[in-house]
Amino acid sequence: MFDLLIKGGTLPDGTQRDIAITGTRIAAIEPKIEAQAHEVIDATGDLVAPPFVDPHFHLDATLSYGLPRVNASGTLLEGISLWGELRDQTSVDEMVDRALTYCDWAASLGLLTIRSHVDTTPDHLNTVTAMLEVREKVKDYIDLQLVAFPQDGLYRSPTGRENLLRALDMGVEVVGGIPHFERTMADGAASVRDLCEIATDRGLMVDLHCDESDDPHSRHIETLAYEAQRLGLQGRVAGSHLT
């Protein structure tokens, strides 16, 4: 007898199959399974698939539309500026509540793995405290991976590097960065090297916002690719926002 039998679900390849589960493992996938099970689910007409994955999110800022006010220009830069105000006004509990609401929505739609960047700019690191609490609360149903993200720049912010290291010490598991926010291209390239070396020393992964700019000279992705090869980080590095 199986623990769970899912009948008639449509797999991602379009085929219709029955799926039998024993414990936490799939025991059989066949066109028709005629067997007893403790629980039977009729999935006819439904998609049966592995969980969806969101590889890039900002959970500390989720569901904050209109706070501290509406983004009048609708631009990314104003949005970042507004977040710069909100992160010092909002409480840990408020960030936790908003993030948990979003996680429930995500899980209801089959999204069970999320990588979320967490702003490490403010010295209070309430953002990190809040997201670590969220990660613990949702661990039974969502794989939440956190990225230490110096939103205002690793070097541009006076305590940017120090706070990123503090966040990693607190339990954040991915090294993040934003090289095109540094004051010069040289600082941006240096930050990429620094962050990749931090990840190498700690055995962590890297996920950098790279070149989210209209400037054609912003080519930090090249430095990121080089550092990944130099330090043997292949398979542990992601670059995002490659506009």
Q: What does this 3D model show about the protein?
A:
With 243 residues, this protein is an alpha/beta fold. The chain has 2 domains: 2-42, Urease, subunit C, domain 1 (Roll); 52-240, TIM Barrel. Helices cover 33% and strands 26% of the residues. It has helices spanning 76-86, 92-108, 126-138, 160-170, 185-202, 220-230; strands at residues 2-10, 16-22, 25-30, 37-42, 52-57, 111-119, 143-149, 174-177, 205-209, 237-240. Strands 5-6-7-8-9-10 form a 6-stranded parallel β-sheet. The protein has a 4-stranded mixed β-sheet with strand order 3-2-1-4, with no helix packed on it. A hairpin with a 2-residue loop joins β2 and β3 (25-30). α2 (92-108) packs parallel to α3 (126-138). The longest helix is centred in the last third of the chain and has 18 residues, at 185-202.
